[in-house]
Specification:
3 domains; about 500 residues; alpha/beta; 13 strands; Rossmann fold; disordered N terminus; 6-stranded mixed beta sheet
Length: about 500
């Protein structure tokens, strides 16, 4: 399977367009709210969202398929500002070299959309990481970034003593989304002069967990000072990640890359067994997917797709989506049990096509799909054309925002076919780097850095013909000139 995946290099996975915002809500109102949010955000200590920080649709109320879900605007009004004795705003991360209030509102909006902030500490770390993303890159920095992206080891040129490790279960050459996330982490590392070297490993979606384990083991033995990565095989990596942590090497995953979903057999506890995981509240995300399907399908059949078999990201949202489906909405491919994923595709486009072809052959009346990966579904829709099934009365709920699917949607021009998406999430690797750097300074990083999400409906504006690469997420914070070097030919 490894060779088969590598043969798909030019058309596998990633993320994309920064669209959907304008058509969902009035832009001036949204920007005003986000500007207000960041202006008061020297520390963001007010009550933000409580236990449901990641939830973007009201429980029990499904979003209409032709209008924005409730709760899709940022509410800065509910936030207070903590001040120092002299009346100045306090920066809770000042002693650690970070400044959440410096986050560019436009980049916050680009990366996340019009979200409700998560808990105070998580939100401060997220904003601090986005603040560093406003990089005015000179050619020397771009050259260094590209050297680090293309090579397993690189020197940042700062002379810093810290060595950053990056362990990816995918890889730059097999998946665009993974390549962009890797670059975002590199660019973030280059904002820290303390980081003098970056060492990266990639398992290239190898189906043997040993390959993934060896990559992390190599970094720990190097040794690096911290590891950022995505653990595709979850709890199967628990042993080597525990060994790294025992050696004093913080492990921080991103994109909700839990080392086994908490509560499942063999899972490690974030914040206890390993330093932290950055990502959405997966149950809230799953509930949002269910809201979209319940509203769009109303009664009928739906199907779910996922990534690497049993990975915590897919398992987390699928569990809650299944539990939240309306009584008249029937899941045609239920998992074997509650701790098993369904519709496994390894996030490989050809596998997604196989899965959809098989399901559509036996269930041509499927009225809705939920999946984390937009570009994978773009390829999978070929099954509709092959089988002569029209994309009518179809509702799709997605996490990522590759414009391949969105442009295909625009070209089809079918008014009863609607897509909702959240965000690509590439920037979360930046947040993981910042969280790890805070942890090295003994800051009490939460075990779960919760990234808020919101569901947005796709419009024609989400198809950008001038995109550097049509499979790169529009919500990515990697600059276009860097993306052009990575994917421009």
């Amino acid at each position: 399977m490894r060779k088969e995946i590598r043969d798909l290099t030019g058309h596998v996975n990633e993320e994309q367009r920064d669209g959907g915002l304008e058509a969902l809500m009035e832009e001036d109102m949204r920007r005003t709210k986000i500007m207000a949010l960041v202006a008061v955000l020297a520390l963001v200590v007010a009550a933000c969202t409580g236990d449901d920080a990641g939830t973007t649709t009201t429980e029990g109320e499904a979003p209409a398929t032709t209008s924005a879900p409730e709760g899709t605007t940022t509410t800065a009004e509910a936030m207070d500002t903590t001040t120092t004795e002299d009346g100045g705003e306090a920066n809770p991360l000042a002693d650690y070299g970070e400044d959440p209030s410096a986050a560019d509102p436009a980049l916050v909006e680009k990366a996340l959309g019009p979200v409700e902030p998560s808990d105070d500490t998580s939100w401060n770390i997220i904003l601090a990481s986005i603040a560093r993303a406003a990089q005015d890159l000179d050619q020397a920095t771009i050259d260094t970034a590209m050297e680090c992206w293309r090579n397993a080891e690189c020197d940042t040129g700062t002379g810093g003593e810290i060595v950053m490790g990056y362990a990816d279960g995918g890889g730059d050459t097999v998946n665009v989304w993974r390549g962009v996330s890797h670059m975002e982490a590199i660019l973030q590392a280059l904002t820290y002069p303390e980081i003098g070297k970056i060492v990266s490993t990639a398992a290239n979606f190898d189906s043997d967990p040993t390959t993934h384990i060896n990559g992390i083991s190599f970094l720990a033995q190097y040794p690096v000072d911290f590891i950022v990565g995505y653990p595709d095989f979850g709890a199967a990596l628990a042993g080597v990640i525990s060994e790294a942590e025992a050696a004093g090497i913080p492990y921080v995953s991103f994109s909700a890359g839990y080392v086994g979903l908490p509560g499942t057999e063999g899972a490690l506890e974030p914040g206890g067994d390993y330093t932290s995981v950055v990502g959405e509240d997966l149950c809230a995300l799953g509930n949002s997917f269910a809201d979209v399907l319940n509203s769009g399908v109303e009664s009928g059949e739906v199907a779910l797709l996922g990534g690497t078999p049993g990975n915590a990201l897919t398992l987390g949202w699928q569990q809650c989506t299944i539990d939240s489906l309306a009584g008249d909405v029937q899941l045609v491919n239920p998992p074997a049990d509650e701790n098993t994923t369904t519709g496994d595709t390894f996030w490989v486009n050809s596998f997604a096509l196989d899965a959809v072809r098989g399901l559509l052959t036996t269930n041509p009346q499927i009225g809705g799909w939920a999946y984390e990966y937009s570009d994978g579904l773009y390829t999978a829709l070929q099954a509709y054309d092959e089988l002569g099934v029209p994309v009518q009365d179809l509702t799709v709920a997605l996490r990522t925002d590759e414009q391949t699917l969105f442009c295909d949607w625009a070209e089809r021009g079918e008014p009863t076919y609607n897509i909702w998406f959240s965000a690509g999430g590439n920037f979360q690797s930046r947040t993981a780097v910042t969280a790890a750097m805070l942890a090295l300074q003994d800051f009490d990083v939460p075990g779960q850095v919760i990234v808020p999400h919101v569901m947005r409906q796709v419009t024609e504006d989400d198809c950008d013909p001038d995109r550097v690469n049509e499979v790169v997420s529009g919500t990515s914070l990697a600059p276009d000139d860097v993306l052009a070097l990575m994917f421009g030919g």
